[in-house]
Every structure is written in structure tokens, then in C-alpha cells.
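okkk here we go again. third time trying to get the zinc ion bound version out, last two times i messed up the smiles copy paste (missing a bracket lol). double checked this time i swear
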Amino acid sequence: MTSSGVRGPGPDAVFAAGLEDGEFRIQRCGSCGAHIHYPRALCPECGSADLAAVRASGRGTVYATSVVRVRPEHGENYNIALVDLAEGPRMMTRVVDIAPEDVRIGDAVTAFVGEIEGDKVVLFRPAAAASAGDAR
Amino acid sequence: MTGGLRGAAAIVGIGLTEFGALPGRSRMEIMAEAVRCALDDAGIGKERIDGVFGADFTDSLIGLTMAEYLGLNPTVIDGTNIGGSSYVNFMQSAALALHAGLCEVALIAYGSDARSAGRAGRGPGPVPYETVYRPRQPIAAYALAASRHMHEYGTTREQLAEVAVAARRWAALNPAAFMRGPLTVDEVLGSRMVVDPFTVRDCCLVTDAGAALIMVKADRARDFPRAPAYLLGIGTATTHGQIACMPDLTVTAVAESAPRALAMAGIGLDDVDVVELYDAFTINTILFLEDLGFCAKGEGGAFVEDGRIAPGGALPVNTNGGGLSCVHPGMYGMFLTIEAVEQLRGQAGDRQVEGAEIALCNGNGGLLSSQVTAVLGTGAAL
Ligand SMILES: [Zn+2]
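finally!!
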């Protein structure tokens, strides 16, 4: 059987374009309703290709956390965490705006688009700090 | 229930190089030295080899490189790379090929200059949605798993350190081990923190080393000079590639691979005399003991206390000193298998587990991503 053809930017490119616009996009499966991240061409739950990019709520909970120790001459220690998104998927990230060793499993965190060494990335900060910041 | 590949193939030759720093020597030279040792151990010439199995992090066509380098004309070539567990997985591929008659003498070989070339082990790479966070893999993935295990079950850094101390005590009995000096829990805890909660002593060594083994169909195994180690059961499973996709960071794919391997072998854990686990990090041993079923989920920390897995303890685990204290050249899989063979042959010297008839091996690959459980046994266990 031959594919009817897929045109236009793929899921990776759609995600990257979102980051450039300051928006964190995940995917929702039109067939089974699952939310997906990282972005894919087929739903890992049901195999459907009917996946649409949707704006993530940005709400998350820290599932696991660690600190990468950096020798002082090379920079500062930083956090590495796995965050469970409110929509379901789990992703790697850094939790910032808090000392890296003070991040706790179970902490409520909020996503934003930031940068690491020039790369646009989805980062998280403690939810309380984020809501104060979002009050504008 | 038994069946599958039970008793289909046997290991009839093993070869190891020195462990540690082998400066001025290339990966292939180190691999070839181990092959020469394995051929001598099996009492055969290289012309008998017609199956070649190898994986490598720097050479994705390693099977071809090995055949060329060794001057072989194999009918079976397998370079499947599922991480450090590849070299346990190859026992399954080799047994299949031998059982099917596609080859008669399988060579599984590995060489690494990781220490001398300044190459630490790595995880699966490149991973676009994780590498960008600079997670310092593979250490960070295992550290995240440890953080979750500590959170859910109260596992402590002291319990992690017990794993490193037990490995060192075994290494002290193994003249080939790279690090043999005394090590205490306090020394593990007080070492340089690398990725929380791991200090450098929670992390495996980076050494140069080579290893090779030779497998034949079981009905030919008695034609070779050494006591054969028979493959009794084997199971492979994977849960994820990158660590964010691991469904539960406290449960590895060993929970799937081990029951299949044990069922194929027709044995229970009570039948196991010696256990060889891929201890790239201290949390590994705890996770695998739980997922193998030696203790309940969450009780692995308490299980390893009081020297239970150390020399003289109730369960001999990682009797060569493991990846933590004996040898770890990037892919540790075959070194744990070869230690199992040495134990089954009764040639393990001061670290010999008396009367070992059945060994349980578990290879780990990637970022806790793939697991291969294998049961090996003596002729008496067959
Ligand atoms: Zn779906």
C-alpha cells in the first residue's frame, strides 16, 4: 500500500517553530485522545497518524530530579529533572529560578520557553514564582 | 515450563585481556588479544570460526571490521547494538544461529580503549529532546532513577554505598580487578559528587579491556577441552530509549526479561548459585535484585545492607568486583558473562563460590533501556 503523501513541516519542525514563537506545543491524537511528547509522526499509544499540535497547559509536576555538578572553573551546577505534564507526557527539562538542589519531587512547576547556550528549550520554574511573575 | 533455547548452545572458550590502562594499544588490538586467548582456551584455530558477533559505540560496522581484522569469512554476522547489554544479547543470537545450523562456531568479541582514549561510556545518542538539556549521560539517567527510588522507598545514599563496598570486597579477591584497595561506606559518601545522588564511587570505572567467548551447539560442546557452560535460558526486553520515556523509573525491563529467562531454564531463584549484574551505577544492583525477584520492589536498599551480597554474604553478587571495581570499558556485558563461566568452571580462585552450578546474568543497556537476562549452567545443571 502506498502512502497518500505527507507534505509540509513534520512534527519536529512544528515543535521547533513553536519554540521560536515562544510557545510550548505538544501533540494530541485525534484517534485515541492521548497527548504526546516528544513529537512524533505516529501515536505511540494507538499508531494513528492523526496527531495535531496543541498548546501545552504548561502545568507540570516534578517526577525525578538531580543536580549535575560542574567544576567551578567550568561554570555552575545545574538541575536536571523529569516533569510530568498535566496532559500526561513526561519530559526532560531543567527547573530554574530555584537552587538546583532545592528542587523536590512532587513540586508543582510551570513551563516557559528559555534558552540553554543559545538553544531555545522548554524550561520550568516553581509554580508559585511563575504565577507571581505572570501577574504582570 | 522449559523449551526455547534451553541447552541449545554452550560456551566452550573464554578470553580476557588485562583490565585497566593499556596505553598505546587500539580497540582492535585489544579485541584480537582476547580472541587469541579464547581460541587457545577452546583449543581451536581461527579457521573454525564462522559466526561473528560484536557491537561497538565508535564503529557501527564493527562486525565487518572484526571479520576483516581477524581474517574470517563468516556465514553469520551480527552487530546488533542495544547498549552494554548487547554482549549478553549476543548469546541469544548466537544460540539461534547455532541451533539453526547457520554457523558452527560463534565468536563474540569486544575490545575497548575507553580509558586510554579518554572516552567514557555513553548512552544512546544523539537524543534531540534530551541532549539539549546537557544531562551528562549516562550518569544523569541513572541518578534520576535513584532519586525516584529514594523518594518512593526511602532508599538511602548509605544503601547505595553498600553496593560499591560489596563490589570492592569481591574485587579484593580478584587479582585481575582494577581497583582492589579497601573502601568504606563513608569513603563512598565523601567522594566527589558527580550527579546527585552519585559520587564518583557510585559510578563504574572507565577502563581499557578486551573479552571474547566462543559458543558452539551443545551437542558439540564435549569435544572441547574445558567444561562447557550451557545456555539454559535467556530473555530480552526494552522499556524505552531516552530516560523520559521510561514508564516507571523504579521498575526496569528485567521484570519482563527475567521471568522469561527463568521459565526457559525451568528454574527458580532458589536454584541460582551466583548472580552477575551490570552495575554501571550503584542503583543498578538494587533495581535488578528487586526486578529479578530476590526481594520485593522497594526493599533492595535494605537487602544489600550488612554485606548480604559481599563475600561471605547470603547471595554472591558480582563476584569479579563488577563494573564498579573490576572492569568497565564502555560495554560491560561480556565481562559479567565470562565471570559466570569462570565460576561454573570452578576456576575463580579466592572468589570462587563453592559448588556453583547455575549462574544468573543480567546485562543492562542504554539508559536502563534494554535488559537481557541469561541463565548459564554446568553439565550437571543441564
Ligand atoms: Zn492515539
